[in-house]
Amino acid sequence: MTDSSVRAEQLDLVARLKSAYPELPDAPTPDLLDHARFAAYMKPVHDVGGEPDAPMKYENKEYEHWEHMTYVICEVLAWRGVWLSEERRRIGNVDVGRAVYLGLPYYGRWLLAVARVLLEKQYLSSAELSERLTEVTKRYAGGLNGALPEAHPKFEGDGSQVKRNTHHVHAVGKGDPQVFAGRAGPPKFGVGDAVVVHDFPALFYTRTPEYVQGATGEIAAVAYESPAPEDETWDRTDATPEWFYVVRFNLSQLWHGYTGTTSDTLQTELPERWLRATA
After folding, report:
1. Residue 243's domain spans which residues?
2. Around Cβ 75, how many Cβ atoms within 10 Å?
3. 139 three-state secondary structure
4. In this structure, are residues 136 and 54 in contact, taking their beta carbons and an 8 Å threshold?
5. How far apart are CA 215 and CA 230, in angstroms?
6. What is the β-pairing status of strands 265-271 and 194-197?
7. CATH number of the domain that 265 lies in?
8. Which of 198, 182, 209 is CA-nearest to residue 266?
9. Is the pLDDT of residue 168 over 80?
10. Does 224 participate in catalysis according to the annotation?
């Protein structure tokens, strides 16, 4: 139970959490928001390549128990056909917004994605989740005291009536992306072809890095056939597979002010829809 002073303290803390341009008011009127800032707001928050940041200290930290268990839950949900990995990436990396993406631990966002997908696909209700969280909180009110949390399921179901995607059925014994082999038709590009990456508006989700959009590169390898991430992340069962390519870029042309050698290169994997032949 909280009193008004505790609630006021929490609201003050929330008010300090910002992920906006300081020169603009909250919910700015249209005349205050230019195209560049709108594009920045709409950029998928997991696409951080090239953004300025302080150096991160690498620590060989052991995973905590809850992190291991979160990974297992996500793998089981995928194995049982509840979601695709691309759905998990969108829900946990993009739909959360920039403040949560930068503010929570890596597997904390995975765990939020688990709750979101179970709610959105109606495996449980919001009330059920809230009641369960309250129950577990009370169970460990005194802290874990060095022990590991234990699962206390209320019942065990057979899962036969759980609605699932069909991808896991098609992929059994084949793997992914082998399951899509032969479905994309002949590849549009070949090794050595010069290509330009489209500068598409990246609405809601993409895995094509912003720093290569509009850049010219060369096909280094014709990789495999698969639905594009922009389709797979919404579990589009009717999505047509397309070819993926490994594209090589010259770093001195890719990064403004690059100080390395002119022979340095970077390779990344892109779906065919993002590529066009050079004029």
Report:
1. 178-277
2. 12
3. helix
4. no
5. 20
6. unpaired
7. 2.30.30.50
8. 209
9. no
10. no
HSE-up (13 A, CA, CB side) for residue 208: 26
Of the residues 41, 63, 106, 140, which is catalytic? 106
- Render pLDDT for 237-260 as a digit per residue (tens, 0 to 9): 889 999 999 999 999 988 888 899
CB burial of residue 211 (10 Å; 0-12, 13-18, 19+): middle
CA–CA separation, 240 vs 160, rounded Å? 29
* Cα–Cα distance measured from residue 179 to residue 229, given in angstroms and rounded to the nearest whole number: 16
Highest mean pLDDT: which of 47-51, 158-162, 163-167?
47-51
Given a contact cutoff of 8 angstroms between Cβ atoms, the answer to whether 218 and 190 are in contact is no
DSSP letter, residue 272? G
- Note if the pTM is more than 0.70: yes
220: which residues sit within 8 A by CB, 6+ positions away? 191, 245, 246, 247, 248, 267
Q: Which amino acid is at 105?
A: P
Residue 160 lies in a domain: no
Q: Is the peptide bond before 177 cis (omega within 30 degrees of 0)?
A: yes
The two tokens of residue 12 are: 């003050």
Residue 227 contacts residue 244 (beta carbons within 8 Å): no
Q: Is residue 196 part of a domain?
A: yes
Report the domain count for the chain.
2
Q: Give the number of other Cβ atoms within 10 Å of residue 11's Cβ.
A: 9
- Of the candidates 75, 93, 95, the one whose C-alpha atom is nearest the C-alpha of residue 84 is 75
Run of H or E including 110: helix 106-120
CATH code where residue 43 lies: 1.10.472.20
What are the C-alpha distances in Å from 78 to residues 171, 204, 215, 227? Answer: 12, 22, 35, 17
